[in-house]
Specification:
The structure is a homotetramer. By secondary structure, chain A is mainly alpha-helical. Chain A has nine helices and no strands. The longest helix of chain A has 28 residues, at about 165-190. Chains A, B, C, D: This is TMEM175 family protein.
Chain lengths: ~230, ~230, ~230, ~230
C-alpha cells in the first residue's frame, strides 16, 4: 500500500502548510466538541416545587457525576496539550500520520461515552475498567504518534527538540498509560475499583520530573541542546 | 514544576504564531459549542392535535426558559468578546497561561448545565446560587487571565495597551463578578432569588463608564497613551 | 457608550487581521454546530422486530421531519453564504459590528429549536408563525449588517464592491424576509399555515434577478463598475 | 443564473485565499461535529446495583452499536481525507462549488441519523438500505466534486496533479459508491442485509490498487507526470 499512499499524497506545493493546519484544526474541533459534550451527560434533576433542602440533596447525589466530568475534562485537556506540543514541530505529513491521528481522535470521541458510563456506575468494576482502558488506548496511540513524529527517518519534523525534551516528553507519555493500566489491572484482580488511586498521579509525576532533572543535570549539556534551549 | 514546564514549552520557532492561534481557535470552538448547546436544553413541547390557544399557552410556559437562554447566550458572548480582546494582544504563551485558559473553558463548558438548571427552577434559591456561582468563577478566572497577560513581567504581550484601557478593562472585569456575588449573597441571606436584580447591570456599567471617563479626563494624558490611542 | 467602546477596541496593531479572522471563524463554528444539531431532532423510530412494511411506514411518518430538516439546512446554508460574501470585504471591525454579529448568531442558534418545533407540528399555525418569525428576524439582522458594512462612513470595507453587486445583494436580502413575513401574515390572517407557498421562492428570485439584470443592462456601466468586475 | 452568480461572487481581491480557507474550515467544523455526534447515539445502559456479569452482558448487547459507530466513524474520516485531498489543490472557487460542497455536507450531517438507525436495527433491510443509500449519495457527490474541481475548464486548480493521481483518485471514488450500491441492491433483492459483505472492501481496494499500478508501470511515464511526482 506504501506506494499508492505516497501517490495520493500530492497537493498544490504552495498549500503544504495549510494542509497541515487543516489537519490540526479538524483535530481541535473534534477535541473541542468531545470536551463540551461531557456536560450533556449531566442532566438537570427532575421534579418541581422542591425546597432548598431537596435541592441540596440533589446536588450531593450528583457529586460522582461532577467528579467524573472534571476528571474527563482534564484528561482530554492534557491530551489536547500533548497534541498541541507535538504538532508545534510538525512541518510535513504522511498518509500514516493522518490515520494515526484519526485513531487518536477515535479514542477522544469515545471519551464522552466512557466518562458517562464510569460516572453512572462509579463504584463498579466493568465501567471503571472500560474507562481506564479508553484512557490507556488513547495514551498509547499518543505515545505512538510521538515516536513516529520525532523519528528523523520519517522527515515529519525539521527543527528537532532537544534530547532532554524528547526524553521527558516520552517518559511522561508512557507513565500515564502505565499508571491507568495498573488501576485497571488492580480492579480486575480485586474485583473492585479504587478511584482513590488517581490521587497518586501527582506524586508519580513529581518523582518523574525530579528524576529527569537530576539525570540531565548530572551529565554535561551536549551541543545541540545548548542551542535549542 | 516551573523548570520542566519551561522545558516542554519548546516548539518549532517558526510555528510560534500558529501555536497561539491554535490555542485561540480551540478556545473559540469550545465557546461556539457551549453557546449553541444552550438551545438543546429547550425541548419542543409534547402532545399533538393542539389548537392555537394551547400552542400559545405552551409558549408562555416556556418564557422562563427563553429568558434563561437569552441571558446565558449574552453572558457567554460577553466573555467571548473579553477573551477576543485579551488575546488581541497576546504574542507569546506559557504553560501557565494554557492551564488558566483551560480552567476558564471549564467554567464555560459548565454554563449549558447551570443555565438549564437555573431555567428549570427559576424562582428557587439553590439553582439560582449555582448559576451565579458559575458566572462569578468564570469572571474571576477571566480577571486572573487579564492580570497575568498584561503583567509585563510575564512577557506575554509586546504591544501594551494604554493605561486607561487597562484600567477600564479591569474595573469592568471585576465589577461583573462582584455584582453576581452580591446577587448570590442576597439569595442566600433572604433564602430567595431576585432575578429582577439583573436589570441593575446596565445602570452599574453606565456609572462605571462615566466615572472612568471623568477620572481620565481630569488628569492630563500621559505620553504612551497619546501614542496608543 | 460610543467613547468607551472605541477605547476598549484596542489590540496589537499587527493582529488586526487575525482579530477579524477570529470573529469570522467563531461565527463559522456556531453556524456549523447549528446546522449539524438540526439532525439530532430527528429521532430513530422506536420498537423492535418490525417487518419491512412497518419500517417503510415509519419512514413515511418521518417525511414532514425530513422536509423541515432539509429546509432549515438550506436556510442556514444560505445565510452562511451571505455572511461569507459580506465578510469577504470586511477589513476592519467595530464594537457595534461584533454585537450585530452576535445578535445574528442568536437567531442562528435558535434555528434548531424553531425547526424542530415547526417539524413536530407541521400543519399548525403557531409553530409555523414562530419558524417564519425566526427566519424574518435572522434576515432583517442580516440586512442590517449588510447596510452597516457597506456604508462607507463606517470604514469597515476598503475595497467596495460594484454598485450593481450591492443593489442586487440588498434586494435579495430584503426579498427573503419580506417573503417569509407574507407567509407569516397569511398564516395569522387565515388561521392556518400554507407551507406549499415556499415553492414560490424560486420564481420570485428568478423575477428579481431578471429585473436586476435588465435594469443594469439598460443604463451604461459607470466607471468604477468596469474596474470592479 | 450563471451571470448573477458570477456577479455576487465578488470579494476583496486580497481576501481570496481567506475566502477559500473559510469554506474549508466551515466544512471541517461540520465534519468534526458529525463525527463526534455519532457517540451520543450510544446511550449508557440503565439500571443500578448490577453485578459484574450483568455489566458484561450489557456491553455484549451494545456490540452492534459499537460496530455501527466504528464503521460510520471511518466512513466519515475517509470522506474528510478525500475532501482534504481535493481542496489541497483548490485555489479558486465558484458559486457552484460552494453549493456542491453544501450538498456534500448535507449527506455528512445525515450520517449520525443513518448510523443510529442502522445500528438500532442491524439485521433489518430498510435501515440497512437507508444507511447504504446515504453513503452512496455522499460518495456520488464527492465524485462529482472531484470531476468539477479537476476539470481545467472550471479554473479551480492552478497546479494540476499527475494524470496517474487523478486516475487512481477517481477510480477509488467511484468504486466505493458502486460497492455500497451493490450491498443495497442485494439487500433489496434478497430482502435481507448482509453486513458481512463490508469486509470485501479491503480486497476490492487491493485489486484496484494493483491494477492501477500495473497499468501505469506498463506505459512509459509522460512528461508532466515526471515533473509532478
Amino acid at each position: 500500500m506504501k506506494e499508492h499512499d505516497h501517490l495520493l499524497d500530492q497537493h498544490d506545493p504552495e498549500r503544504r502548510d495549510f494542509q497541515i493546519e487543516r489537519l490540526i484544526l479538524f483535530t481541535d474541533a473534534v477535541f473541542a466538541i468531545a470536551i463540551t459534550l461531557l456536560i450533556i451527560e449531566i442532566k438537570v434533576p427532575e421534579g418541581h416545587h422542591k425546597n432548598t433542602h431537596q435541592h441540596i440533596v440533589d446536588l450531593l447525589h450528583m457529586i460522582p457525576k461532577f467528579i467524573g466530568f472534571i476528571m474527563s475534562f482534564f484528561v482530554i485537556a492534557i491530551y489536547w496539550r500533548s497534541h498541541h506540543r507535538i504538532f508545534g514541530f510538525v512541518t510535513s505529513f504522511t498518509e500514516k500520520l493522518i490515520w494515526m491521528n484519526m485513531l487518536f481522535l477515535f479514542t477522544v470521541v469515545l471519551m464522552p461515552f466512557s466518562s458517562a458510563y464510569f460516572s453512572e456506575y462509579q463504584m463498579e468494576t466493568i465501567p471503571y475498567v472500560f474507562y481506564n482502558a479508553n484512557v490507556v488506548i488513547m495514551a498509547l496511540v499518543n505515545y505512538r504518534i510521538i515516536s513516529y513524529v520525532f523519528n528523523p527517518a520519517n522527515k515529519i519534523v525539521t527543527h528537532m527538540p532537544s534530547a532532554r525534551f524528547l526524553h521527558l516528553f516520552k517518559m511522561r507519555a508512557i507513565a500515564i498509560p502505565a499508571f491507568f493500566f495498573c488501576c485497571l489491572s488492580i480492579a480486575l484482580i480485586f474485583g473492585a475499583p479504587f478511584p482513590i488511586i488517581y490521587f497518586l498521579i501527582w506524586p508519580m509525576m513529581y518523582v518523574l520530573n525530579r528524576y529527569n532533572k537530576r539525570k540531565f543535570e548530572a551529565k554535561p549539556v551536549v551541543a545541540n541542546e545548548a542551542t535549542a534551549e
